Recover the amino acids of this structure.
């Protein structure tokens, strides 16, 4: 599995209803995309839930490299580039995915926690730590699902979770993470995602 995200940071006075309208009009286009586990259409709004920026930042979990490639090299991503400029695409190798107790419910919020992996950390220990974290997060009330992944080029770990319940802002503060609003979630291959360890 592959996780990816791009962030489009917008001016402080940008009308974020433009983003809401864009997602309302086009979000359904990936609802049946082959090879896609899920795409969470995410937004942060300056001054809301502690966000310092206006940002559109979709997060994808891909079942297949072919699905990811067909999107990234196809007309859909190019249209986004035409509208906003080509963003940096962050990419992580997925170590594991877990359903939460609210699996199947529409998520209303997402939490992303990124951190550098110390050079001294052994890779098997890193994998076990992240998989344990995913299992622990999956026990929390209101969780839809959680992904743990690593970018081995920059040695950055990410925990990304989707929530159907209120109170995620407190979790973000506790975890030193970034909180996003979920405007829509396309889930064509969610049922096919392997649960637990991804290899």
């Amino acid at each position: 599995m592959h996780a990816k995200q791009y962030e489009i940071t917008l001016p402080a006075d940008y009308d974020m209803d433009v983003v809401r309208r864009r997602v309302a009009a086009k979000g359904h286009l990936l609802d049946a995309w082959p090879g896609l586990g899920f795409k969470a259409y995410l937004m942060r709004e300056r001054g809301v839930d502690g966000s310092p920026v206006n940002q559109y930042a979709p997060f994808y979990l891909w079942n297949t490299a072919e699905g990811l490639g067909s999107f990234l090299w196809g007309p859909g991503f190019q249209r986004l580039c035409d509208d906003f400029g080509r963003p940096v695409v962050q990419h992580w190798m997925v170590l594991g995915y877990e359903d939460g107790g609210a699996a199947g419910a529409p998520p209303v919020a997402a939490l992303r926690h990124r951190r550098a992996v110390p050079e001294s950390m052994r890779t098997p220990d890193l994998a076990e730590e992240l998989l344990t974290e995913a299992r622990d997060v999956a026990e929390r009330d209101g969780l839809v699902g959680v992904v743990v992944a690593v970018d081995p080029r920059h040695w950055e770990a990410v925990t990304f979770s989707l929530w159907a319940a209120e109170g995620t802002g407190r979790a973000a503060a506790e975890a030193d993470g970034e909180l996003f609003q979920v405007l829509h979630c396309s889930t064509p291959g969610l049922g096919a995602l392997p649960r637990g360890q991804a290899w």
Remarks:
- The chain has five helices and eleven strands.
- The longest strand covers residues 89-99.
- The domain at 2-192 is CATH 3.30.70.100 (Alpha-Beta Plaits).
- The radius of gyration is 16 Å.
